[in-house]
Amino acid sequence: MTRPVPIIPHLIDRHAGDAGFYWAQITDSAHSPVVDLDGLADLERLLDAHLDGLRAAGDAGWEAALAAWQRWGTAEEMYVCARLALESDRARERMRTLWPSDPARMQRVLPGLVGALAHTGALDWIQCRLGADSPLPAQEAAWRALARLARMGTDVGAVAAHAMPAALRAAAAPIRRAALGAAVRIGWLELARPALGDPDPDVRAEAAIDLVTQSPAAAAVVLREVIAAALAGLAELSGTPHREAAEGLTRWVRYLALAADPAAPTDERPPLPMPVRIGLEYALQRGAPALLPWVVAQMHDPEAARLAGWVWSSLTGIDLEQHGLTLEPREPDPDHEPPPTDELDSGLPLPDPAAVSACRLGSLGADPILLGAPLRGEHALNILRRASQALRWIAARRHCGTGFDVCAPAARQRVLLEGCEGKGLGRGGGHRGRGQFLLYPGKSN
Question: Taking the model in full, what pTM does it have?
């Protein structure tokens, strides 16, 4: 006779809270300067351990996760509840319990729902919500989950085909944008080009991002236009709307840098007047050695000094602390708030701008660099193996196109890295192609 598993309510509650916390850490690590592939694997292990605790608790685990969702109502709790619901034999009933009556609230927690749908591969749930008769947040979640599954190698073309034409013509721009992302990741890249003329700037930007490796000049024109318009409106925002707008802008700026022609005259500053932190993101992604003096100048900015030091180190490959290029830690001043960079860039060293300026660099050439060298061959492979997620993302995009996903499960990434020597990565130079040889041979990425 099987003995029942003892239930410790406080422990189950802890599992529910910590599972959401670690999912958020994983989600936020895609461009982290401190989390590497080993760190990603550790976060995934901790997430799985807490989810296992909830599963082992059965109905009590579900009730604890649901109580956390009802209390806090964030994307983290949605992810945990949706994972448990979709894995259960009562999926339909439990998913209905999670659906809030407020569409705006559902919109805020969509990342958690999309993550759960992708992790569980819930194609039945997804297919039922692709049609125009489903609530808009459900449609958007379904299309975004399909895009994620396609990127991980799941064949979802048959699921998407019947609803794709209507979704790309939908009145709601978020549906058009989400469906476009799914289409491109399935391999229907030709659908992106007409969307460059979409009336909605978010859809135009998504189309440009999808075409960065195929038509970089056309993508750059669209991205500059939507970025310039968004920058003009950023100063009028504050609080959460400002933060969300800045995050979207940063994403667009990353791809604007990737769209730049490596053979064009090198940049000496970001191409548009940008907030310093977004400008530093451009400099990191662009990798042009001519941008290094501008990066050094930002080390005087209290909002971004530590970030500027990290960007300079990431481009040159020179460790600030090992080479004595840092300032002594500041003593806390009870009468003054610490500079924003101390909180925003916690864990990064504080650079000494004078010492960095005096540092003599060898010839770096004109090609985009990362860690002191162009992203070619073994250097790119070593970054994918050992560097932080932020640098791995750049190496993956510049060297592999869309052919390597640094947000994929760590175990999957390690398998791909172990097998990529015989498939081209680590031998040839960088390219603008989609890199299909790296992931799932015979499938579109």
Answer: 0.89
